[in-house]
Amino acid sequence: MVGIINLTRKVLPKLTADAKQNIANINSMPEMVLTKMARNGDKSILHTDMNQCAAAIIKKDGITTVYTDALHGCNSVGAVLRLKNGEHLCVLSHYVPTNIEGQVKAFEKQLNTYAKYINENEKPKIFFNIRGYDNNGKLEAVPNPIVDKIKELFSGIFKKGVDSTITPYANGKRPAFFSSANIFQFDPADLNKLKITNVGEQEKFIDLTV
């Protein structure tokens, strides 16, 4: 069984005078690779559009990749929750920063939809991919109400609280062919292994058993 596909480019391509090369560089972007795979009939991939919140129960022979793209100042919030049968639910949202309430309500709707399957005694993992700013050479997250709002929503459901991670991304002065995707990939051979590739191709490898 094929594991997690490596979408991360080791070197970001440069803009050239060669139009064909530039097109090839665009097609090498992680979001473009996934989009092409989905258009070619790969049913393991679920895309989330802007101002949407999508969810899927992760299965070896079903959806194992959930992603969104075109994050240019938007908030992307993802969550991985353990279900009562041991499977994982992945919820991924992408909203403009002026629609905090809409994003929270969309997340709440997904939680309500899967409520009878969710294990409320397990700690869910929440991942915030939000706009950052340069603080003396270090990328810091811009204060964003979505963080506290989503945590408040989850704290009313899960008895042991949540594990949360904030990953800021650069929004200005981006180089050519800069990836603006937020991608959740579960290893089909071991669904407890998760790789997240955030905007700018920042990678995280997560063991969901911990």
* Low confidence ranges: none
Mean pLDDT equals 96
Tell me the strand percentage band.
35-45%
Percent range of helical residues: 10-25%
Q: What is the name of the CATH architecture?
A: 2-Layer Sandwich
The total of helices stands at 4
How many DSSP E strands?
11
Radius of gyration: 17 Å
Give the end-to-end Cα distance, rounded to a whole number of Å.
24 Å
Give a quick account of the main beta sheet: strands, pairing sense, barrel closure: 6 strands, mixed
- Which fold name corresponds to the CATH topology? 60s Ribosomal Protein L30, Chain: A
Report the CATH C-level class. Alpha Beta
Order of helices and strands: HHEEEEEHEEHEEEE
What is the structural class? alpha+beta
Count of domain modules: 1
Cα shape? globular
Task: Quickly list its features.
60s Ribosomal Protein L30, Chain: A, 6-stranded mixed β-sheet, 210 residues, 5-stranded mixed β-sheet, globular, alpha+beta
